[in-house]
Specification:
With 172 residues, the chain is α+β, with helices and mostly antiparallel strands. The protein is built from 5 helices and 4 strands; from the N terminus they run ββαβαβααα. The chain has a domain of 120 residues: Nucleotidyltransferase, domain 5, CATH 3.30.420.10.
Amino acid sequence: MLAPTVRRTWAPVGCTPLIRHRFANDRISVISGVSVSPTRRRLGLYGFFFWNNIGQAEVVAFLRQMLRHLRGHVIALLDNSNTHQGAPLRDLCRSTPRLHLEYFPAYAPELNPDEAVWGLLKGNLANGQPDDLADLEGDLQQEFRQLSRSQSKLRGCILQSELPFHLPCSFH
């Protein structure tokens, strides 16, 4: 959102930091996902930006984009949002046999490594002052690129989740 997320920061004693911004409820909607390569143990971060709310069609577009980048069978772990279910997704699975959808249990964000990704991204963007949606999108894309290049941070997102991971010990 254009309204900044405010986080604690450092400042000289007696100089309270102020964030000045124009109030606006404008937002960018983002779908993101972390990929784990079972053979190379390499992690990837994918994101898709939208200027309006995300529905089933946008989820299908995101999954199609991921399938262009990933080889072999893909297991997508999704939360139980209505946008992650329905006829468009069932049609995509029928037309793409290498795509398999699995769902997290209801109300279990602690299992989702993508929640940690968003914690990092929002922390890095906290106290920011984008002037408009284009600035916000630029900042978000830059943070996405930096995080996607950090295997150690992505690995931390996976390991901090309570998802039972069964990868070889060298992953840790």
